Amino acid sequence: MSALRVVQDKLADLGRMRGFRAAVAVVLSALAVIAAVVLHNEGSRLQSISAKVPDILATADLNARNAVATELVTKGTVTVDGLTIGDEALAKRMELMFTPQGRIEKIGEAAAQLIATERPEWLPIPVAQDPSLALLAAAVVVAVVIVACLTGLAVQLVAVLLASGLLGGLVLAVSSAHLAASVAAVPLLLFTFSLVVGVVLVLLDRPSPMCAVAGSVVREAMRLRIAVAFAALAVSVIPLLPQAIDPSTPLRYQVQTFLSRSLDTMYLVCAFLTVFLGCATVAFEIRDRQAWTTLTKPVSRLSWLAGKWLGIVALNAAVLLTCTIAMYAFLAQVRSRPPQDVFDAMAVEEEVLVARVGGFPEYDRVPTERLREEVEARIKADPNIQADLREGTRTELEVRKAQAKAILEEYGKAQRTVAPNEEAVYRFPGLSAQRKQGGTLSLRYKFYSGESDPHAMYPIIFLFGTGDRQQWTDHSFIAAQWNIVTVPAESIGDDGVLEVRIQNLQFNRNAGAGEPPFLPGRYAIAFDKDGLELLYRVGGFGDNLLRAQLVNICKLSFLAMLAVVCASVLSFPVACLIVFTVLAAGSTGSFLATSIDEYYYRTDSVGVKVFETIVKSIATATEFTLRSFSEAQANGPVVEGRFVSWIDVGRTFILIGVAWSGALLALGLAVFRRKELAIYSGQGG
Amino acid sequence: MATPARTSEDTIVEAVGLTKTFNDFWMRATARAVDGIDFHIDRHEIFGLLGPNGSGKSTTIKMILGLLHKSRGKLVVFGRDPSDVAVKRKIGYLPEETYLYRFLNPTETLDYYGKLFGLDRRTRRRRTEELLDMVGLTQVAHRPAGEFSKGMARRLGLAQALVNDPELLILDEPTSGLDPLGTRQVKDLILELGRRGKTILLTSHLLADVEDVCSRMVILYGGKIRAQGTATEMLADSQHTLIRAPRLDEKTIRAVEETLQRLQGVGIESVAAPRQSLEELFLDIVERARAEQIATSGAQSGGRIASFLQDDAAGATGGEMVDQLVNAAAQPAAVAAPSASRQADAAAAKAADNAVLDQLLAQSADAGRPASGGSAAPAPSASGTSSAGSAVSKPGDAGPTGSGKPRAGGGADRAVDQGVIDSLLGDSNSKEGRG
Prior knowledge:
The structure holds two protein chains of two kinds. Chain A is of the alpha+beta class.
């Protein structure tokens, strides 16, 4: 022990030396800057090439067999400023991209494929797309290094870097570079977490009871290793997730899988940390009587509870921030994997790492007068209805409502059905901004046809736009599953309306002379009300992720308040049980709602029926109470590339973060104020 | 024993008919820990709440602090309800057991509690340094409290109770877990704080600890007050007189006895050679070890009283005088100076004692008979404290444990040895001058 103590003391002395700290700061900062400059220069070079390639491709003429076209179809390359980019494997693909007129139709796609071969593996895709990110990252690293050295963590920083390097080197010797990077990242991320917590403690270092209590919670979590254990779990899992994702699947699914698992890991780790720490810090402090010493100071019980809550929320924020940094870093690793094709690569950028809003088509409404006439006609024509009315089995109002509902459903279904060889038109309004933005939109659909065999493919034709802008594409879809087709933004009309025609036809590719180019589909196509949705980009992935994390923080804050309040009046195990139950019920709300509908027993036993009623009542009440919590899901939309709006954030903040948490606090305070913290210890009678 | 309720600006704590009954879950009374007690604590006094285990001492304190709600009666602290948060700004509390955060070191602990009082960083830092020095924990300032011994934790608990320079200091069993050195230092600190104008409420079932420091006390049993009053009122034994003299031979003792028999018709109930108390021996050993600079990993001897724990009324001059007294009293066997009221009592007792001795001298001069030697007379032990004006001597004691002064007795008609009288007078003067 003494030798270890000596080493520790020596290292502590070294860490206090100004010269050492300065040297560490200078060396590490220099390394970060050099790396950033190298990355930035390479990214800039790639960008300058990317700017020139489309212009060169535009000059390719296969019919005229000019040099550019010939090089493309024979070698799969193109020459830019004396530099040859591309690959022989692209030759066939390039040939297919020429139109009968000898020109390349989709220049952007072709350019992207060629440029992708020029990007070195060590250059992350985000830096290739925006070289300034390298400089930004270097600035952050330099700031972190300086803060670490100023706060006396220089020795720890060097130790962490050495440990990372050693671990990474060992793994690299026996495995892949990606796995080595994953392993090496763990100590760095743990150190980052320590730094973030240090900043949190500085922010809480104020002469106020609430901040003092919050600071003590953070210290308790760190010194007793509670927070460290949970953070270590999260920052160990996230970097290793890419290794567990099958690289043979489409890249978009790999990215979505990584996002989904990372976000769920983050949230669950924070939720469990909240439950355990929130209940422990309050319940044990009351049980072990540290609360006596604190609450005999000028600290109101409100300040004490609020301080406990604030400390837990601050820790959650630190864990989320560290995990988000980890997720960003390893998302770049996953993104750099080879896509299956250009569409796969585009899907990652335009359907996953993006924030999209979905819109449904405008359906025609049945005119009121016509509806009334139809209802009257049906009532008159149906002898059963007449009989019911005569006998008084049903009232006229009930009959009219039922008939109107049936007519509207039939009308709606008819609009959402396309018979073989028929066409249906759907309009999507309000897309002027997307037209100006350009690019592509995604039409997401789930159709049913015939027996909806999941192993069969069903043909369909889509036409987008009208007049000169109209474009069409033939598709084959899998019934009863979601499919996506890309829609060019230029198809949107000047009035901001996109017209989509769906034709139940099959394109006859092998049509000979005299044969029709299109054949009718075999079965009618039908879809549900939400079975046809147009998705368009309204923002980027980074902002979307930020908003999603704010939603998560609001939910975790509510859990923290629940834990603190429960533990202030109940014992630790009971408080944990309650909070876990709420967490589980809140997280599985939609599943619970569906299960309640399906929950029944086929029995005549009264006892079982009573039991069923009781269980259903409890489940229904729980689902209803926690519906807002379960509906405030932000991780799913991020994974699907859907927009998490500021309205969503605001709604979650006000309802869950303020109203629910505030109500809990008020209720808990009312009970806690009456609680006598000291217990009887004498023998009187 | 009820005391009429007093309303005074100087009354810090007032309890009238204070009762606390503990109930079970079904609200049935299970225990009446405090049963209709009346007492008050005035400003600047050191008030003792005594009683055996389970007598209601801690329950009373917890009601004063708002940790428990009273069942009946009236309880006012600084003119307000005890649950008022503002009241706690003026209170410092050392619980029965020291409940510290195990993961915080002493510096962080005091900083944390300082923040709870809204102290700015500079003040917190200064007070933390002074308090840690005062309680002898500077060397372990960065060690987690979870590694502390009970005594060290107790010292830190005392420090946190003083961080806000409280007007009312509540100490629940303050010497619990402390070694004799620590006990002595705590008692000295209590007396010093009392001299500086702090009001102190302390509870204990160790009567020897309380006797030396309290000016007024209440004795509880079964939740009721069994006795209350000043130390003088409660502890005076008017039935005996204690005289301390250098070692006397058998002949002298017989002569003294004959003198007593002649003058008052009483004999000597016991004669014994005094012996050093275990506390004195312990303190002496520790002092010698310190002088030899033997290392220890535990708490160090406490330093000066923290400068921020000033008495506002004393002013700078008073503070300097007190500092001198404290410096003089910084030895392990230091004798604390008596409070003003006790000084008055001491002066009165001294005058009476001098009158007795004058009478004895006069009678001795008349009789012309020297006192005979003999076995040693009972003498007070050198315990280092002087309780004002009272002497306790129980029949049959081998040696009294408290110091005292001889009370005025009846007239003396027998001569005594002048040398004995001179030495008696010399001892009395030197004891008053110490501390």
